[in-house]
Amino acid sequence: MTYSEEHTISCPLDSRYKKLLNAILIKEGARNTPFTTEIGIDLDQFEVDRNRGVGNQNNTMDFCIGLTTREMLLVEAKLRVVDPRNLKKTELENKIRHSKDLLIEHGRPIAREKIFLFGSSVIPRARHHLSQLFSNNPNVLVYTVQEFKDLCF
Q1: How far apart are CA 11 and CA 1, in angstroms?
Q2: Checking CA distances to 7, which of 18, 58, 85, 113 falls within 20 to 30 Å?
Q3: Apex CA 30: angle with CA 127 and CA 14, to 5°?
Q4: pTM for the model
């Protein structure tokens, strides 16, 4: 999984949803991040704007990035979570499903892997809990923000 700025920027979603990863992660609770110029697509903001006035918003993953494989990687930042055991499988699955639907609607294939980011103080518990929730699914990956950067950038 390698980040592609070109593929991220070429996604047909409006450019106002293409933001610096720093800004997206800080909005999601990061105190600081290792990113500088890398871009992501703010799926939460897209869903809010898409359903403004309708009142029927679905939960989405927080953001996605384009990969060199021409797929989109879905990422959920759970940086404010203190106890990962409070996360429910159906809630996370619904976020994944709706995010996939939005991107497929715009002609973008989705990577098999799904990334969940947690703060370093809860990462061991988060890995254990999500592993149990998703029956050790190798495509559900749990990282700190720095591990995510090291893996994909």
Answers
A1: 17
A2: 58
A3: 100
A4: 0.95
Q: Which structural domain range is residue 88 located in?
A: 5-152
- How are strands ordered across the β-sheet holding 72-78? 18-20, 39-42, 63-66, 72-78, 110-118, 140-143
- How far apart, in Å, do the first and last CA atoms of the chain sit? 9
| Tokens standing for residue 134 | 């998703």
* 3-class DSSP assignment, residue 81: coil
pLDDT, tens digit, 9 for 90 and up, residues 58-116: 899 999 999 999 999 999 999 999 999 999 999 999 999 999 999 998 899 999 999 99
Alpha-helix residue ranges (DSSP H) falling in 51-139? 89-105, 123-133
What total of structural domains would you count in the chain?
1
